[in-house]
Amino acid sequence: YKTSLEDDVVGKSRTSSADNFITDSAAGGTAVFSGVKTLNNMVGVDSSSTPRGTILEAAKAAGYITGVITTSFVWDASPAGLNAHSTNREDSSFIAQQQLGLDGYPLGRTTDILLGGGLCAYIPESEEDSCRTDERDLLNETMGLWNVVFTPDELSAADALPLLGLFATEDLAYAIDRPDSQPGLAAMVNKALELLTAATADSDQGFFLFFENEVTDKAQHANDIVGTVSAGLELSETAELVKEWVTVLEERGDDTLFLLTADHETGGLGLGTNARSPIVEYTYGFNPFVIANASHSSTYTTILLYAATAEGNLTLDQVHQVVADNMALQYFSDDEANVIIEAANTGDVYSILAALNAAVNSRVQVGWTTMGHTAVDVDIYCSNNPYCSAFYGSHENTELLELMLGFYDDDDIDVGSVTEALVGFNATASVDGSAEYVV
Ligand SMILES: [Zn+2]
């Protein structure tokens, strides 16, 4: 099996932040989009907390149309790295308000399409599922300013900009676990490209679109190989779709660059782990059929086991049933089921996840070095454009901004003048810092 991206690897990016070999997504995004190394946890500011303009903001100021799509919450660190400035990535309310262009934000609204999860930062604290610490109602405040959609059907019917799509309280589900109430990454990207292509039909400028599959990060944080592979396949499918759109745009006479990279690696995933597989005994093994047999991720299956525990002690039969229904592990033994029951008895969901992952990972023969990020260099992918050669070789993540700007050949895209426009903007003006979720 080959993904649609394998022939497109052109270079590597070194991902360290200003204060750590191992970056988080806030510093990682800031490096790529603003061209400066900053401290972990800070987004859109340099290491002395000064706001720095981003490629998206500069493109918008030069007349381009812009879009940001994520499978995470829209105010998460990577999307925020394009259209917000905060010394605290967890400050969901502060970031969400900037992304919408509210509160007299000095740059106004810089984003024309914003799609993902994260509804919790838009609703007042007193409402269920809110992650705010005040009574502001951002959905109400966006009325008349944004077209807002909440379902895949509403997304597919959307025909006007600016478009805000919020499809989950927090982040979207893994592709393999996705409910019908949420659109997939490919559907979001396809809709955005449809709207952006139409909106730039008569424009001298074009558009800047960012999309990310954050599930590759989240599933690897969980050391969840089924979730990880399902996210990779979704990314590959989306990349294929984007390449088809690039052809459409090129035929229209619009030179278009499709670039894909990561802000960091997560999990330290390795194949051929020495774990003794219950199925295969030799060391140089990798058994992807185990992944192919699963109908849900181990994260999803863990939540089912955890929920069942809350209703009373798990039985051996119950564990066998849930694991068979969702992961179809062959030769899953009573001993393995008992390890899960012991983990469940501690009441700790991560212990259940670890016990289940041990059964899955030993069969697939994959190993993980961490439940956090690593300092491994990440690939840069680029396809079918002569400008791809600019990305050949190994780069600091901060070099990518200049390389991307080089493609535009448009002096009006000036990140420095955006930084000047942000002078005096206080990126440490925390509104609440309520989000508990740091990845
Ligand atoms: Zn992460």
UniProtKB/TrEMBL annotation:
UniProt entry tagged with the keyword Magnesium: yes
Residues that coordinate or bind Zn(2+): D217, H221, D263, H264, H373
EC number: 3.1.3.1
GO CC, one annotated term: fungal-type vacuole membrane
Regions that span the bilayer: none
Residues holding Mg(2+): D76, S78, E212
Reactions catalysed: a phosphate monoester + H2O = an alcohol + phosphate
Cofactor binding summary note: Binds 1 Mg(2+) ion. Binds 2 Zn(2+) ions.
Keywords per UniProt: Hydrolase, Magnesium, Metal-binding, Phosphoprotein, Zinc
UniProt-annotated catalytic positions: S25
Cofactor(s) demanded: Mg(2+); Zn(2+)
Single GO term (MF): metal ion binding
Family per similarity comment: Belongs to the alkaline phosphatase family.
PANTHER family the record matches: ALKALINE PHOSPHATASE (PTHR11596:SF5)
Stated name of the protein: Alkaline phosphatase
